[in-house]
Q: What sequence folds into this?
């Protein structure tokens, strides 16, 4: 399974999964159809599936146009998103599985950004291979999504699920927010040397307009404050030992940042 990352809208990424043997493709969160069409043409591949993480327009805006062009495609989304995702045919629940190019994607229910948000995790199939996590707007490189429909308790539960995945997992998050996220992270975790090094790296990449996505989950665990609420440095920054309260305070500070 090859993965292509297509920049879209102002700061979104659409992910195109390609099976070169069968000449088929699937796409994660097509906020708009044009970049997907272009890539499909270039690869001479047929689109067979859309995997949506949640109903926001910048993630589903291309569904209808792609469905028209490829009437046989199957559109997947979370069961709680019923009625909110254009063309949705499959209503996924936690523990369900999807398949593409001989890989199995496990569905994780990760509410918080929205009440229906899901993520897709493709575990490695061979030694040394990476796992692939498509997490929409739940976990970002260096940050996490805003709480539009969910509570801090839900988001902590969701992020706890995601951080339990292996370090050797690529995090394909849906926005290029990393630089701003790390600027905030440094204000709450200033002595973290991994974070300082990551910030320098990301700053250099962004100065050349290069992508900082995907990141590795191991790096997130070492540097992303939103999966580190139980680390001492962060507990003292937010003056709380309680996971939900720590997380809520961090999220609140980031909202003001
Ligand atoms: Zn969103
Ligand atoms: Fe989004």
A:
């Amino acid at each position: 399974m090859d993965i292509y990352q297509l920049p879209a809208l102002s700061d979104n990424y659409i992910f195109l999964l390609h099976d070169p043997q069968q000449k088929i493709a699937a796409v994660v969160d097509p906020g708009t159809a044009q970049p997907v069409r272009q890539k499909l043409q270039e690869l001479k591949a047929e689109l067979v599936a859309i995997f949506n993480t949640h109903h926001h327009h910048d993630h589903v805006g291309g569904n209808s146009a792609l469905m028209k062009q490829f009437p046989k495609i199957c559109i997947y989304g979370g069961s709680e998103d019923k009625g909110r995702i254009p063309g949705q045919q499959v209503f996924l629940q936690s523990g369900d599985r999807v398949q593409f190019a001989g890989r199995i994607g496990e569905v994780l229910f990760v509410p918080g950004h929205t009440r229906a948000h899901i993520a897709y995790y493709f575990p490695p199939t061979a030694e040394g291979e990476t796992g692939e996590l498509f997490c929409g707007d739940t976990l970002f490189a260096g940050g996490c999504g805003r709480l539009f429909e969910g509570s801090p308790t839900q988001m902590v539960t969701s992020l706890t699920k995601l951080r339990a995945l292996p370090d050797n997992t690529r995090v394909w998050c849906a926005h290029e927010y990393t630089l701003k996220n790390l600027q905030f992270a440094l204000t709450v975790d200033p002595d973290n040397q991994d974070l300082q090094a990551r910030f320098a790296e990301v700053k250099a990449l962004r100065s050349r307009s290069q992508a900082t996505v995907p990141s590795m989950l191991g790096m997130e665990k070492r540097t992303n404050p939103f999966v580190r609420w139980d680390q001492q440095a962060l507990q003292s920054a937010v003056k709380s030992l309680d996971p939900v309260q720590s997380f809520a305070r961090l999220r609140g500070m980031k909202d003001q940042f």
